[in-house]
Fold this protein.
Amino acid sequence: MTAITAVTAQNTLGVQQIYLLPPDIGAVAIKIGMLGSAETVEAVGKVLLRLAGSIPVVVDPVMIAKGGASLAGEAAIAALKRHIIPLAALATPNLPEAEVLTGLRVSPGREGAVAGDAIRAMGASAVLLKGGHAEGANVTDILVEADAITVYASPRLETRHTHGTGCTLSTAIACGLAEGMSLSDAVARAHDYVHEAIRTAPGLGSGHGPLNHLHK
């Protein structure tokens, strides 16, 4: 585990500036990604119960890889539903993950809203159904809140450079919440950010390449 204590601005000619981080910097948002085992899920859940308080928790229930491989067993999934989902200000499953969580057949349309409500019934305050696995000319994400359903759509980009899109999206949303943005605005900005990160991907590797996280 790494704890950043200082940030430096330097090059081969020397150090230009040093910024010492406050010892009580704390956290204003938490993002949870792949946990893998029931034991890890339970340990994280205990910490969140003790420390999170009013801090928004974005839960990306990573359980199915891009190529379809399972990343979490049944015990881990059950523990996730019991210990982590109820603490989520936002859960961000893709369509296959939503199907695993709910047992429902899920698409970005009306079924997506039904699945979102089913995950909210597990305790999550809001759910973002990521529609990248669906077919069609557009990629459609659906945000299901207690009193609203918001749709975010963008043209589908025909590219293999999509590695880490879900992790990037949930992290970008958490950053927006940390800045004090509303949930819908944070999702909108993150959706646009990921679209542009895919569009301007550097084209690395022979398979699913990484995104361009440094685009302007």
